[in-house]
Structures are given as structure tokens and as C-alpha cells.
Amino acid sequence: MAQRDTENASRAGRKRASSREMLEEAASELFLEHGYAGTTIEQIAQRAGVSRNTFFNYFDAKSDLLWGGVDTGIHALTEELARTTRGQCVVDEVRGAIIRAAARFGPGQLPLAATQYEAMGAFAELAESGLSRFLGMAVVVERYLAARLRPTDAEAARTLAYALVAATVSAAGAWARAGVSRGQLDEYVRGAITPICEGFKTALGRWSGSSRAPSQNR
User: Fold this and answer.
1) What secondary structure, in 3-state letters, does 82-100 show?
2) What's the predicted TM-score (pTM) here?
């Protein structure tokens, strides 16, 4: 009896830890079977063997399932920028943070949005939900740059932030299409953003000498 209770407790403990993965797998199956628009949250929860409330413990909306680890990646970028060692050229600081965040993605960590959106009929939803994520990533980078540069460099900070995000997204697309031999995401990102960083450093060489200490309120 004690052994059975232990096994039940163990299964119960594993269920919550794996609920996200079960929901993602169920959604993938249903989106391919019935299309994105033809699949409901209730169907996904039922296929995964969890309640509707459990779904909302992990996801705010059905569209979140398209993006897999992308949201985690944006959070990782915020973490990497926060722990960046200050003092070098701010462009290099941001470049390093983006590459380190990308290094957390291995060859098997592909979001559904990257490979299956056509088969799922989810292009419109992909564009809408993707835009908010890419804008959010750009805002994270822009705020970091703005805190490290002169106020007069605000427009340059915004331009660089959006250029880096666009290059990162393009690199992620190439990574997704590369197939099973794709390797780690960071090498693709490094190749895409380095020319942009070097170009900005050359055109705006004063950045390397204009970095200021971050606000005490950060």
C-alpha cells in the first residue's frame, strides 16, 4: 500500500511538470488535424488529459502555443542584459547578450510557428501574435541602449534595436529551415547580427566613448 501511494505521488508530481509539454504536443496534433482556427482550447486540454484551468496555468491564449520557447527566449534576453558586465562598448554588450540568449536554444527546440504554420493554416494568427513578441524584444534592447547612451542618441538606439531584432528573427528562420543538422541557434544569430553591430560601431564611433553609467533607478 505504501509503495502504491509513493507511485501515485510520483505520478502526480510528474503530471504538473509535464503538463506544458503535453499541451504543446496535443496542440500540435490538433492544429495539423483540424487547422489552427478549427481547434479550441477545450479540445487541446482534453487531448492532453488536463483541465481547461490547467491550460491557463501555462498559456494566456491559444496563440502562445505557436511560439514554444520564444517567450522564454525573450525572458532570457532580459536576464542576459541584466547580468552584462558594463564598461565595454555598449554595442558589444548587447551583441553578447543576444548571442548568449540564443545559445539556450538547441537543435530540437523549434516552435510550431517556425515550421508548421502553413499546414496549420495559422499565418494570420502567426503574424499578429509574432509582431507583439518581436516588438517586445526590440523594446527590451532599446531600453538597455537608452540607459547606456546619451539622451541625444535615442533615435540611434531605437534604430539599432530594431535592426538587431530583425536580424535575429531572420537568423532564427534560417536555423529552423536548416533541418536536423541545424546545430545551435547562437551561431546563426552571431553571423547575422555581427555585421550590424560592426557597422553601427564604425558609423557612430562616439558610442564607444559616450556610454554612461546606468541610472540608479534601473
Assistant:
1) HCCCECECHHHHHHHHHHH
2) 0.71
